[in-house]
Amino acid sequence: MISRRSFVTISASAMLAASLAGPVMAQSPDAQGGPPVLSPGASIPAGPAITVVGTEYHFAGLPTTVPVGTVLTLDNQGDEVHELIVVRRNDGVTKTWDELLAMPNDEAFQYITAASAESLIAAPGETAEGSIVIPETGDYLAVCFIPQGTTTMSPPASPAAGQSAAPEGMPHFMLGMRQEFTVTDAGTEVGPLPSASPMESMAPMASSAP
Predict the structure, then answer these.
(1) Which of 36, 16, 18 is nearest to 27 (CA)?
(2) Cα–Cα distance, 88 to 114 (Å, whole number)
(3) How high does pLDDT run on average in the chain?
(4) Among residues 13, 48, 189, 197, which is most buried (max CB within 10 A)?
């Protein structure tokens, strides 16, 4: 599956997210390789500002459609650390997001492009630093790969020191913390909010996880 070290270049928050997630799932793209990142145009028109709310295990407040130029921020109202990674399915790709998430990294990276060179990550009760500006129309996925049970932004202690390492819980997206959305032309209306019910499309993958 996609490792957490996939979607954004290393930044302070991405390095922390990588250390938390371990090898199980998707980390933010770094120097070790990841999908290409969308290159913003010379002048992206200003779009609406939308606060995405992260809880266990769901994104709230993100409409099913938004126009180019939309600015996304992350407000973590949950009890665990959450992140917001946004990727675009490349033009002409017919594979579903479930299929893409189940692929090995190198294969998946042929079909997706990161919306931003950084992910957003926030501790419980905090707002993530920065924002993600959506620069291009297309089909997108918002996703969180933080392992279940991660409640602190502090890097995990070394097991050699006799302390706990990073949580090894199931990645949040396998528990429903992912949302597909479409980006439309600049100036179009923001679409409706999706159902509040967590997505169940990843349930077979979650149930088969070791």
Answers:
(1) 18
(2) 6
(3) 79
(4) 13
